[in-house]
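Sat 14:20. Reprocessing the chain from the morning session after the first attempt stalled halfway. Input below, unchanged.
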Amino acid sequence: MTTLHNGHRPIPQTVARWRPLGLVLASVLTPSAQAANDLIALSLEQLLDVTITGASKYAQKQSEVPAAVSVITRQEIKAFGWRTLDDALGSLPGVHTTYDRQYSYVGMRGFGLPGDYNTRLLVTVNGNRLNDVVYDQAYVGRDFPVDLDLIERIEFLPGPGGAVYGQNAMFGVVNVVTRSGADLGGAELAWTHQSPQALQEGRLSWGRQLANGVDVLVSGSSLHARGEDRYHDFGAAGVAGLAARLDGERDREYFVRLARGPWAFDVVHGSRSKDNPTGAFQSDPLVPGQYQADGFSLAHLQYNDRFADGKLQVLGRLFAGEQRYRGMFSYGTMFYEPSASGWRGAELRVLSDAVAGHRLMAGLEGQDNIRVTQVVKDLANPAGDLHISSPGYRVGVYAQDEWHVTDTLVTTLGMRVDRNDRTGTKFSPRAAAVWQATSETTVKALYGRAHRAPNGYERDFGDGVAQVANPALRGERIDTLEFVTDHRIAQDLTVRGTVYRWTMHDLVVQGTDAVSGLQQYQSGEAVHARGLELSADKTWAAGARLRGSVSSQNVAYASGRELLNAPQVLGKINLSAPLPWAGLRAGVEWHAEGQRLSANGSRLGGYAVTNLQLSTEALAPGLELSLGLRNLFSKSYAHPSADSNWQNAIDQDGRSVRVKLAYRY
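Finished this time. Tokens:
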């Protein structure tokens, strides 16, 4: 068995056990005319030629982006059958995912506290932020309001993005770029069934570029799942039993995009309801009718054009959004807990290439959080109802200079100054040097700082029974230093090595109020981390692609205590390849994770999970058929839960079978 020795735990023996699987798949990668023209395959040249817009809010070559950027293409999403954003992100170096049968969470570079709602990750769609203003939540599971079939690419930029985006961009920025109507060129129908979850999913999309130049895309998706009946032990509640028909889920998504010339208009809407089989927030176990539901709407109007012979680019945008949360919980009697937020804002950005060797950017962004409300209704005793309202604002000014010092050296200096009603004025600097050492090797030295003000739930929620507010709660700050080396060994093979170190100050954690003795969000001790990520990307002319990575990450509080839910070792392999039968294509992914520390101090065992996707477009014109096997070998494993759960760990799904039919005309 080959192990990784860096003072950390070895990668599980499953790596060696399944090495023959890669050899078997590689053996079928025989060149053929069909494979060479396979629409799902992209050459490495094409992959590296994809421009990135999420790093600096304007298009950049990947080799010049001041981040260890990764791109997930629409072809990869199809090849591996991913249906949620966290599924796709989980294939990348340094990313681990957690699911508590309510929400999905993305951990990055060793940080993934259970139940934190992804508050330190910024998610955008076509450059427009999705994080709400009550919980700062970044939706990454089925609550993500855009169907993955509508995504052209996902840009993942690890590390702080505060110098450009401000709030939330602490561990990374995920920019989702949607497809165009011209790309669809007609209508698409899709239907999915998954067992044993009794999941049914459907989508109808239409898109086209009209004769007058207007690009139109309209889509609607729907999902209904019964879920799985699972046995749960509710620990201190003294209850254990089968949660029968308590794992159901319902989801609706709508997307509209209109674009013509420099103008673009997006409308995104999603609504999702998830039943509560685990007694979340220590509600009464095995009581039907409990659920959590989220609704999200966002509208975005953008103007982006060039002037002065292309040397001046002006972007202006207006946006408005609203979020609705509804929770129904049983604590002897039923409590209904709705929250709502609404925001509107604008951004103006100017980009100039007028000064030789410099690309200068300056921008102003403001957001008015017109509604931030949290409500608790005691349905048995309305006199005990609670209503909290805490509207606010944030405004930011930013500037950046991308200086091409020589033909082989590019530096980036940036700064954003933010002011909000909670933590006052904050500074987020960025500095980067990108050196093209040789035609095959690029070296990046990166430094960045980002911040996060406490959200409405952390700062203002207090019911006097379980939690008290903390108006004096400070915000968080993270400083990150990293070095990235990309090397092209051959035209079809690249490798990357990244070393990093980050420190977070004033981490917001749940503590105990000294006066009331109740739970309260407080500023905790600093957290330090260091890590190493190694990855490789290989393509074949026959239409196959192999992507793999190994990550070692060590995260601890300043006192030396280990963080919860922080696996020290991650290993990943993603292989997509054409097969020589019936136009089939196989997508195999293998993910291994080390042990994770849970809330009661025990360690949950490491595990390795394999997924298999088979698809073909050769049966009939316009028809695509796919078969997906998630957790192919039905591995038993669990994820740590938050201390607000009865359970110390949440069991994950075993093997599931998914069949999908898609028709394009």
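The chain has a mean pLDDT of 92.
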